[in-house]
Amino acid sequence: MDYTATITTCTPVEQVQRKIIDGLDTWWSNRVDRSATGFTVRFNASHVTFAIDPGATDTAFTWTGTDAHMIIEDVDDPTEWTGTRLLWHVAPAEGGSTVTLTHEGLTPKIACFDVCQRGWQHFFETSLRDHLNGQPAAPELSQPAA
To answer: What predicted TM-score, i.e. pTM, was given to this entire model?
Structure first.
């Protein structure tokens, strides 16, 4: 079963996607490198690159992991996120919207599942929720590895 969680926000549906993408450095990591087709998020010596898939709408958009080098203790394969996809679904809710994230490929079968699931619990379920609700978020504040 893929990691899936839903948060509630006061942000209207038509603004959620833009706030998520424009605010990557506010809710996920202070080290985001953007390109015309995607972005790379960096944590210490780790990184993951996502392509923003075409066909996005206000209510559904997808990012595909195209490169990953995740340094995680007791995880032998740092490329586990390569080929996984982040499936975002936004739905209207009273006073705003709900946002559901499914990390397709992040299952108990991969070595980083426990630590990566805890990461999403922090970055998606708490930090992004706070960002979308106009509260201070808690992104990764790492510096480049020496």
So the answer is: 0.95
